[in-house]
Backbone:
């Protein structure tokens, strides 16, 4: 296991994230491609893929994706995971550590869309790709009640907003959704955007504002697909929101929880005191991270069938769509 010094990790993560934002804005020394590759390598080196999980690249109806399958996967059980990275960086390869851990703990096949990133593709491109991947999974034969949608940071916001878009397109809802440290309000008006700016070890308001300007491509910051605190969330499945007590995004995550509650969406909000952004990454290095991952898995299991009849999932053990390199 890689040894991780938590403060050093967060400092390096902040540096890598800043490099991506600079490159995307055209003011840094690196190209966007080089900055993204450095970001990926940092994640790969910090969080290697676990043993006992097979990773395959697939074409999810035109969206490149990665499938992570544990050896003891429950037949027909699926998790769609939307990675973070401020819609500017991040990819399935860099997330094999966390995704592989979730696959093993949940005993589920995990689909990780490699959704389009800014500045090459601005909103609503990430939402479109997330919905396409979810639709593809259903068309492959997955039953909605056997699917959970989850994500972190930008992907945590999409764990809600992509379902809003899917609902509006008439797609059936999955069993549940898990939003980890969601970047839920690109207006950045929550109180902790100011009170915890400088306390949050990896994210600050200025950096988030720069990223938002790039990824929105001129769309308003209160676009409900970019900022789900403004979305009509009626009819969504049960949602778990997990956020850290030291996150600048904390107040806006609480606001998202309030919006879901007002729209009569079954909801659970967990706030982990003293934790920074997506502390789940540090499972096996930080007890609070192990607890957060375990709580997320328990929430998913609470809403998924214990097992799925084999006759209902023929061919779903490991589908063989066309392969892509991601």
Residues:
């Amino acid at each position: 296991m890689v040894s991780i010094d938590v403060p050093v990790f967060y400092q390096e993560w902040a540096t890598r994230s800043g490099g991506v934002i600079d490159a995307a804005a055209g003011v840094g020394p690196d190209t966007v491609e080089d900055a993204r590759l450095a970001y990926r390598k940092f994640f790969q080196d910090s969080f290697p893929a676990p043993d006992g999980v097979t990773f395959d690249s697939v074409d999810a109806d035109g969206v490149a994706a990665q499938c992570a399958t544990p050896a003891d996967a429950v037949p027909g059980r699926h998790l769609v995971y939307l990675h973070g990275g401020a819609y500017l960086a991040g990819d399935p390869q860099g997330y094999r550590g966390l995704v592989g851990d979730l696959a093993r703990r949940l005993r589920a096949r995990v689909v990780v869309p490699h959704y389009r990133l800014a500045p090459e593709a601005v909103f609503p491109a990430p939402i479109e790709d997330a919905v396409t991947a979810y639709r593809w999974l259903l068309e492959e034969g997955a039953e909605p009640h056997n699917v959970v949608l989850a994500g972190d940071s930008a992907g945590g916001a999409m764990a809600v907003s992509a379902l809003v878009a899917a609902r509006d397109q008439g797609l059936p809802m999955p069993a549940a959704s898990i939003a980890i440290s969601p970047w839920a309000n690109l207006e950045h008006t929550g109180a902790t955007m100011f009170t915890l700016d400088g306390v949050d070890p990896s994210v600050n308001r200025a950096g988030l504002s720069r990223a938002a300007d790039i990824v929105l491509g001129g769309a308003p910051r209160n676009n409900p697909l970019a900022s789900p605190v403004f979305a009509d969330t009626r009819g969504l499945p049960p949602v778990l929101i997990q956020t850290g007590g030291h996150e600048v995004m904390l107040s806006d995550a609480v606001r998202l929880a309030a919006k879901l509650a007002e729209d009569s969406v079954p909801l659970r909000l967990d706030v982990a005191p003293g934790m920074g952004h997506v502390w789940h990454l540090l499972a096996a290095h930080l007890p609070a991270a192990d607890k957060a991952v375990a709580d997320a898995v328990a929430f998913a299991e609470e809403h998924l069938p214990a097992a799925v009849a084999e006759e209902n999932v023929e061919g779903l053990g490991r589908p063989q769509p066309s392969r892509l390199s991601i």
About this structure: The first strand starts at residue 53 and ends at 60.
